[in-house]
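Lecture notes, unit on protein representations.

Consider one protein chain, 403 amino acids long.
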Amino acid sequence: MFDKLLKDKTWMALPVAAAVLLAGGIVYKASAAKPKTVDLSQTEDLFSQPIKPNPLTDDPNEVMVKVNGEPITRGEIQKVANVMVQQHLMRMKQQMPNMPAPTAQQMNDMQQGAFEQGKNVLIDQKLFDAALETSGITVSEEEVNEQIEAAKTSLSQQGKTLEEALEADELTLDKLKDEIKKSIKTQKFLKQVTDKAPEVTEAEAQEIYNKNSSVYQNEDNVEASHILIGYEPLEQEVWKTLNAELVAERKMPPVQTPLTEEQMTQCKESMAAKKKEAEDLRMQIINGTITFEDAAASNSACSSKMRGGSLGVFGKGQMVPEFEVASYIQEVGEIGEPVETMFGQHIIKVTKRPATFTFDEVKEEIIQRLSMQKKQQAIPEFLESLREKATIEDTTAAKPAAE
C-alpha cells in the first residue's frame, strides 16, 4: 500500500543506480566483462516453466567485492541481478507475447551478465553513499515534514491514512523520515554534481545547427500540433479489420484479437462517438471557447498534451500517411477536420510550413538540449572519478560461477 505511494514520489530514497539511469545511464570501466549476447528468438514459450535457480548462487554471505574496505556480498549482488533478469524477461514478454522461453544456456548467460551489472551498480552505490556522507549537505526537519504532509494528502485522496500505510508496509514513521531525508539529500547532491557541468557555448550550438541542416533547413519539413481522441486497443483492432487492405499494404501487424459481432458493434459505436467528440472539440477551438493548447492539455491521449499538443518538426515519411497528408494540405494556422488513423481521431493544427529555421530561431533550444546532455553525462563521469580514487578489491574474476 504505502510502498506504491513511496515509489511514485520523487522524494523517496532512490538507489544511486536508479538516479543515474534516469540521468543517462551508468558508465562502467572498460575492463568490466561484457555480458554475452542472448538470442531469445530461438526458444520455447517464455513462462512455460519456472525460472531455474541461478547457477551463481553459492554462499550468499561470501564477500565478492570490497570498496574502500566496505564489503559487498554475493547475496547482495545476486538480489540486484535477479531483479534485472526478471525485469528484462517481463519487458521481452510485453514486447513479444509469443516469444519462447530462454534455453538453460541462454538463461545462464543472462544471469552472469546481470551479475556483472549488479556488481557494478553496488560498487557505484557504495562510492556514491560515501561521497554523499561527506558532502556536508543538510536537510531540515521542515523539508522532511513538507514531504510527510504531501504523503498524507495523497493518501487521504485514496481514502487511506499515513498510519495505515506505514503499518501495511511494516515501516515506522522514523524510518520513513530517514528515507525521505536521504532522498532529499541525494537530490541536492546530484544537483551539485550536474551544476558543475560545463556551460554550452554559442559555437557548440552553431556546430550542431550546421551538422543538422537537413533538420533545420529542409523545405519538406512541417511543424504541427495535434489533439488525439484515442482509440482503445479493441477499437484499434476494429480499425485494422475495417482497413485490412491498408494493413496488408503497409505490412502492419495483423489483427491480434478476433472480435465477436457484439464487440465489433460496440467498438464501431464508441469510435463514432469519439469522432463526434473530436468534431465538437474542433468547433469549440474555432469559436474561441477554448484554445488549442488548453484543449490538448485537457483532452489529448498523446503525451504531446504536456506541450499543448506540439509534435515539433517532422518530415515526409515520419507520420502515418493519413496524418502526413493532412499536415501537408492544411493551411498554416487552420484547425483541420478530424483525421482518423489507427490510433484515433486527430485534430491537427499546422503552425509552420515549410518548417525551416535560422540559427537564431533555434539557438536557445539547441543550447538547452546540449546543456541537458552535459548535465546527464556529469553523473557517470562523477562516478568514474570516484572509482579512479577508490580501492576496489574484486574477487569475482577469480571465482567463476558454479556449474
